[in-house]
Amino acid sequence: MVFLCNWLNAQQHNKEILFENVSVFDGKNELILTNQHVLISGNKIALISKTALPKNDNMIVIDGKGKTLIPGLIDVHVHMIFGALSMKDMMDPNLKPENLLMKVVPEAKKMLLRGFTSVRDVGGPSFQLKQSIDDGTIQGPRIWPSGAMISQTSGHGDLRLPEERSRRFFGPISKAENFGASFIADGTAEVLTAVRENLRFGASQIKLMAGGGTSSAYDPVDVTQYTLEEMKAAVEAAEDWGTYVTVHAYTPRAVRKAIDAGVKCIEHGQLLDKSTLKLIKRKGIWLSCQNLIDNTPEMSELRKEKRKPVVDGQKMIWPLAKKMKIKLAWGTDFLFEPWLNEEQNSYLLKLKEWFTPYEILKMVTHDNAQLLSLSGNRSPYPGELGVIKQGALADLILIDGNPLEDIDLIAQPNDKFLVILKDGRVEKNLLE
């Protein structure tokens, strides 16, 4: 089966793909170009032309009939492994690291077929999944992996069960650490080791827990985590490898300390004040934000209580960050609630309150791709994403309709996403 999949992928890359008569949203500019012809050669966009292009027998020709071609969608805050598992799954004593992929593989395929051709995994053991996708043995998006989340003891990544005690004092590592979910690292030496371990496995960026969270038992949302020296150590180790640190943080104090340490991206930030947002703007730091909810079916009362101020803060942070022209990125952050994955596209529509259809599409294509590019040479996929231009990577979606006029089309991938390409390969084609 592996050989067959690889052979089929190779055969596809031997064929050019020609989109005829399409309208093109290039990911960056609001103006849609009509009556375009787009040629794909290998895994890149070879040519975009107003005039018809010659055909040959070794070519896949797709008549777009005026439908809209856009870049593949990008979600910059996913947990590929733990987004596919429920808390009940995680607590199953029979769950082993080697059988994690059984539940994850179908979710990865569904994500790709929802049009998400690239994602940034900000915590979890996704290296094996990524390798299987890259090899062509399973379907799924491109993955920028962070590896295990790095957390202090009692931090947001301290996912120990009540009976699990500190390995520093009592010996064995916790179940979550054994699964590769997190590193509990205290002091600069341990932080350096944790960062370097992730880089050794192929992390494209590093995820550090700088403040409290809503999905963990031990840390209130308002607490600040890690000393300045510990965070600086993580940043230096990442920068030595040509990449960056992003931090989980909600509050001004946690974010300001992270900025002082040299981080390049803030995950969440829903409790920030205006002065801290001004600092983010001045430093050119990315704010990777979400639209979290606090009323999912199996969410514990503790988690609902912790999440409420975060959810309330979203109503302020999105419009204010937009007004201040901060570098904004969008992600979902589904964790231990796999039933939410089917709503990935519809979560984009939650931005309609503050953003135009063009602004939403630009954020989830071009802008998110700019954040991915911060990984520099550690990016696992050389090339330009999030745009339709000559020489860019061929991650494309042909949509039945114009999403700049009707953004709700984005939330109808099963019916309205007629063709999906990733890396120049046809992953879905309803026009056949």
Automatic annotation (TrEMBL):
Gene3D superfamilies linked to this entry: Metal-dependent hydrolases, Urease, subunit C, domain 1
Amidohydrolase-related domain residues: 68-414
GO molecular function: hydrolase activity, acting on carbon-nitrogen (but not peptide) bonds
UniProt keyword annotations, A-Z: Hydrolase
Pfam families cross-referenced by the UniProt entry: Amidohydro_1
Keyword Ribosomal protein (UniProt): no
Listed SUPFAM superfamilies: Composite domain of metallo-dependent hydrolases, Metallo-dependent hydrolases
Presence of the UniProt keyword Hydrolase in the record: yes
Full protein name: Amidohydrolase family protein
Organism from which the protein derives: Flavobacterium tibetense
